[in-house]
Design brief:
Layout (H helix, E strand, L loop, with lengths): L5 H12 L2 H15 L4 H18 L9 H11 L6 E2 L1 H10 L16 E2 H17 L2
Antiparallel strand pairs: 1-2
Helix pairs in contact: 4-6
Amino acid sequence: MEARSPRELEARNYLEKHRIMELLNYLTSALLFFRPEKPRQYLISILERLRIAKIAGVALPFFMDNSNIAAMFEMLDSSNRGTISLTQYKEALKTLGLCTADEVFKDDGHGIPFEKFRHEVNKRTLEIWSAF
């Protein structure tokens, strides 16, 4: 969707600069993945943990640990080949709020192994958190 006015362009640039849409997508995905009883309190706790990590200079919080990432990969790799397709990979990243619908991925024809999937989930999560 094209920005129609200078104000819309300014708003879009602001959202992109601060990666607000990625944060909102990630938070929404976390809500749907964990389905907490009290969603507002859950979101507040995530943002508070992020704030504390930034102030204290400690590692940023990850809400998808390796067991969650492995479980997701295993669901996608139902034939137990050790790889998932590029389409599955992109859809998983979109579901987690870690990529946009229009992001382009290069297909090398070999599939995506677990280590690459895990690495990308962690890397993209860190990139989102680091923007704040």
